[in-house]
Amino acid sequence: MKHSTPLLSLLALLLWVTAASAQERVQFPSLDDNGAGLPATMLDGYVFRPAGGERHPAVVFLHGCGGLFSRTTGLIDTRERAWASDLNGRGYVVLMIDSFGPRNHGEMCSQSGFDRELYRKRPRDAYAALLYLQSQPYVRPDRIGVMGWSEGGGVVLYAIRAQSLGRPAELPHGDFRAAVAFYPASCNEQRQQAWTSTIPLLALLGAGDVWTPAAPCKELLDGAAAHGSRTELQVYPGAYHGFDRANSPIREYPEYRTAAGVVPIQGTDPAARQDALTRVPAFLARFLQN
Fold this sequence. Notes:
eight-stranded mixed beta sheet; alpha/beta; Rossmann fold; disordered N terminus
């Protein structure tokens, strides 16, 4: 047992080398995220490319409140890496944005860690990523989607809505063509001011999720659909927050207790995860591969 720590360190290193061989670290500025006259934050991005030299459709990934990297391994979170691998296999470029590290901020899941100003900057990161991908010779500039989890799903809602918090005035190659939000934060309709969008959205939620409950999102998106937005909603019976993460035991997270006293519960739901692995690529293909 005394060799367990070095062995785990070696395993983490090998995993990192393997992952690094399939990704490229890039940098690009956010969009005026610090106000007029101040330099924009230089963001870190991680590009995962499929095989083949032709132009590919692409998807921007927006991480959740825990950040892009695992606190235990220091590697890109297994959830994001698994989805990138799946989408690469289907011919998509994936660009993951690290919104926290370049701003020297840790997790935003806890009450003490949450920074509303940073949260509201993240839609500008999403559109900075869109513009970056549109400038790359290996990307189809008119076939780019965006996908986020939890807080990142909330960023998706804020970014693609009609009154976007991040959309620049000029988008020469067009806007995002499709969006996917897993158990998104910020579904409060009053906060979203009668949310609508011209961008097709798929939202996936767990009926058992106490952290980002399904009911407010259903109300928000049903209202948007009634006003002409192209929204699709899938609610999985009994599924908790983080249901699409592989091999994650269901457990409580008291360190992330909300101001209302709710203790989040997270964990894999195999049936929901399997459905999402089919439903999400089918949705993206309708808008990004035609």
